[in-house]
Each structure stands twice: as C-alpha cells, then as structure tokens.
Design a protein that fits this description.
Number of strands: 17
Strand order of the largest sheet: 16-15-14-13-7-12-11-8-17
Distance between the termini: 26 Å
Order of helices and strands: EHEHEHEHEHEHEHHEEEEEEEEEHHE
CATH architecture of the largest domain: 2-Layer Sandwich
CATH class of the largest domain: Alpha Beta
Number of helices: 10
Helix content: 25-40%
Strand content: 15-25%
CATH topology of the largest domain: Dihydrodipicolinate Reductase, domain 2
Largest sheet: 9 strands, mixed
CATH superfamily of the largest domain: Dihydrodipicolinate Reductase, domain 2
C-alpha cells in the first residue's frame, strides 16, 4: 500500500509506562527536535495499568491524555500508530487488536512470547496491510550502521564466522521474581530478552537467514526468587538464566550465540564479531560509539585492528543529527534514531537503514524457537522444521 505525502502530524498512542514506556516516550518527544520530518509525531495517549502513576507520567513525558483501558486507543480517531511496550505475553492481543482497527503498530521485542503468537501477529499484519515495526533498537547505533554499509560494500568478502554474546549480570539471587522470570508472561528468560537482539543483529548484518541450529544448552541456576515486595516469600522462576547455541546460515557462515543475566561484571555487553576472507568487524555496545575493523588486505607490516569513532556528521549513519565529532551518543539515541526512521516511512520517505517489521521479527522468533527445541530435545533443528 502506498501512502500519500503529507505534513500532518502522526498521532502516537503508547501502551506501557515502565522501562520501555520511558524509553519510547523519550524517543517520540525528542525526535522532532533533532530530525527534520515531513510528518512529526504528536503524543496523543498513554495507556497503562497503574492509575496512581499514570497522570504524572503523562504530564512528565508530554502525553496529551491518558487511560487505563488500552482498547480505547483502537477507537481513537487521532491515533495513527500504536506503540506496544508491554510484557511479551501481551504483545499479540494488543498488536492484533490495533491492526484490526486500522492502526500502524510498533512493538517491543521479542515479537511475542511464543512462536504461535508471533505467527498470528505476522499474519494479522499481512491481512491489515498496515505498517508494522519492531524495536530492535541496536540496529540504529551509528557503529552498527557503518558495519552494515561496510558489509554491503564487500569489505569482509566471504563470511566465515559470526560470534555474538549478550551478557548481563543483574539477574543474581537477590533479584526479585518479576514478570521476566515467569514463562507465562515472558515466554523465555535471557534467551528471548537478549538472544533476540543478537539474532536480529546477525540476520541484519549478514543479510542472510539461519539454516539450522546445531545444538543448544539452557540453564536455570536460580530456581526460586523472592516475591516483589516480600521479605521471605519466594516463588518459582521457570525460564532460562542463560542459553547458548550454535547455528549455521544459508550461505555457509557458522555462528555462536550466548545470552545470560548472570555474567558477573558484565552489565550490558552486547557484542558481535564477524570474520571474513578480507577482514573482520567487532562491536561492543558498552563502547557503542566505536567500531573495530581489521583489513586483511593490508600488508602484515602495518596490518592491525582499526578503532573507528562513529560520530562523524555526513560519514556515519544518524550521527549528523546529533553532536560534534566524538561528543558521544548513548542508549536512548538508538530509540530516537528508530523513531525517526518509523516516521520517515509513515511520511512516505525511505528509512536510513532497513527497519524490522512483523514478518522480519517472525524470522528471528523462528530461530529462538529452534534453539529452545534444540536445548529441550538435545538435537540439531533445521529451520525448515520450525514454522
């Protein structure tokens, strides 16, 4: 479906006011200040369950009105796009309802808690023919954008290896039993939360699809956690604390993925390294403004890893919208950059970098499901068997 160019603001509704609600609210509020957009956003409605905090949240982040009834967003004529920032188990119901109401939808990752729900979301998007987006925000780091361009230009040649890790340490024994540790609400643990990001980055950078998962190992080290607000009562954690798996891609690249919330000393170490016949690339989100590049075509006398500061205006993706060179970007800027690309698409323009939609994110969900099956059944799982 083609959308006519228009200067009319795009009405935004948001569901969810916690961590992602803050990140997304900041993005929608900041994006027109830094990007010139044909159709800027208008923050229309915020919806969440906690009535005691909602009015204050709406005022602080610039939402025109608020409601505890998320279905009201489907009926609001001044909302064009609904942003779903709720726990994983709610994504499908809320996204499908908004698509059926004729709204565009942006949804947090992973696409859903289960493959069946993700499939239903993909199918609903196809039927509605509305625009859909999934918040894989790490695609929007300028360093990742530069890596994407270098790979499109053939800088690495044939790709041999990809190794990706996402290591956090916040999920230790003292961490309460939030929804992220309940399978019914989260779908999986570190796997869906963190491996989802690095699988998406791998597919994005390689422009290739996983052919098979060759083995996986999951562990739940902390089976019981204290209940939120309780000093002694405990509940069962029934998701993985870590999950590691091996995979191969259709064009022959071999890959390893590891996600954990128990990597003591690693706070948000989202790392990927890619090795090819002509060179290698390395990215670590804890140094998100840097990309490391090794050019194997240089002579051995001077060859070595090159440290690239990806903040140059007119040189690196998104960087020109922000600060002078080496005045560093942070976590929130990836969300703002993505909001800009969403608004560009809805305004009839091209995004700076490819955006994941529900169909794209469903392919990542298939890989996550294959890894869970490989861990449970202790066998290799071809992706053709996961639909």
């Amino acid at each position: 479906m083609k959308y006519a160019r228009s200067s009319r603001p795009i009405g935004i509704g948001l569901i969810g006011q916690k961590f992602m609600g803050r990140a997304h609210s900041n993005a929608w509020g900041q994006v027109p200040k830094f990007f010139d957009l044909l159709r800027p956003p208008r923050l229309v409605v915020i919806s969440a369950r906690d009535r005691t905090e909602l009015a204050t949240f709406a005022e602080r982040w610039g939402w025109a009105r608020w409601t505890t009834r998320w279905r009201e967003l489907a009926e609001a004529p001044d909302i064009d796009l609904v942003d779903v920032g709720t726990p994983n188990a709610l994504h499908a119901e809320q996204s499908i309802a908004m698509l059926e109401a004729g709204k565009h939808v942006a949804c947090e990752k992973p696409l859903a808690g289960t493959l069946a729900e993700a499939r239903a979301m993909r199918d609903a998007a196809r039927k509605s023919r509305r625009k859909t987006f999934v918040w894989f925000n790490y695609r929007r780091c300028p360093a990742v954008g530069l890596a994407w361009h270098l790979m499109r230009e053939g800088a690495l040649g044939r790709i041999y290896h990809l190794r990706a890790t996402y290591l956090q340490d916040w999920g230790g024994p003292a961490t309460p039993l939030s929804w992220r540790f309940r399978k019914k609400e989260a779908g999986s643990g570190a796997h869906g939360d963190l491996n989802a990001h690095i699988v998406d980055l791998a597919r994005f950078l390689l422009a290739d699809e996983v052919d098979a998962v060759h083995g996986a190992l999951a562990r739940t080290f902390i089976a019981e956690r204290v209940l939120p607000g309780a000093s002694k009562k405990r509940g069962r954690s029934d998701v993985d604390d870590c999950l590691l798996f091996l995979a191969s891609f259709r064009r022959g690249t071999v890959a390893s993925f590891e996600a954990t919330r128990l990597a003591t000393g690693d706070q948000n170490a989202n790392r990927v390294e890619i090795n090819g016949e002509h060179g290698s690339l390395r990215f670590d989100f804890e140094d998100m403004n840097l990309l490391h590049y090794f050019d194997a075509r240089q002579g051995k006398r001077t060859a070595g890893w090159r440290r690239i500061m990806c903040t140059g205006a007119g040189v690196h993706p998104y960087a020109g919208h922000w600060w002078p060179d080496a005045h560093l970007l942070g976590y929130e800027h990836g969300f703002v950059n993505m909001a800009a690309d969403i608004l560009r698409v809805l305004g009839g323009e091209a995004p700076e970098l490819p955006l994941p939609d529900f169909a794209d994110a469903y392919e990542t969900q298939r890989v996550l499901e294959a890894a869970l099956l490989a861990s449970d059944e202790r066998c290799a799982v071809p992706l053709k068997e996961v639909r």
